[in-house]
């Protein structure tokens, strides 16, 4: 009895596995992008309900992420508080609108420190309240509980680590 596996059969099996991973990976990428856009839609809807048009969803999310911190524009990106490429534009716009204070650092005059004004704090609090409403209903309405979030967060952290390694080690 010949029990050797033919090389073509192994190759076909790997191709099927690769296609399965490819399809799932592409679906995950699509979902990550879509979820970010959907979060912005949810935030925009919250401000629309309040009749506020003075800030957009990206700016509101940025204000929420700054919170009570005082930091530089560069730290916004390095800490993951801002995901877009035009952080300078949005910071300048938020300063002009009176949502962010900015002042030159006493130590390094080239560096600008930013923090929220009272109006900026109000917007950040609106986003925080929205999130709190979601937290109280997501298990009951969305069917997503502690176990699911724990598993999802572990997987997303692993994907984040993989992407970081891809950049660092040019995988």
Automatic annotation (TrEMBL):
It holds the Pfam family MarR_2. One of its GO terms (molecular function) is DNA-binding transcription factor activity. InterPro entries: HTH_MarR-typ, MarR/SlyA-like, Tscrpt_reg_MarR-type_CS, WH-like_DNA-bd_sf, WH_DNA-bd_sf. PROSITE patterns: HTH_MARR_1, HTH_MARR_2. This is MarR family transcriptional regulator. Keywords: DNA-binding, Transcription, Transcription regulation. Residues 25-161 form the HTH marR-type domain. One of its GO terms (biological process) is response to stress. Signal peptide: none annotated.
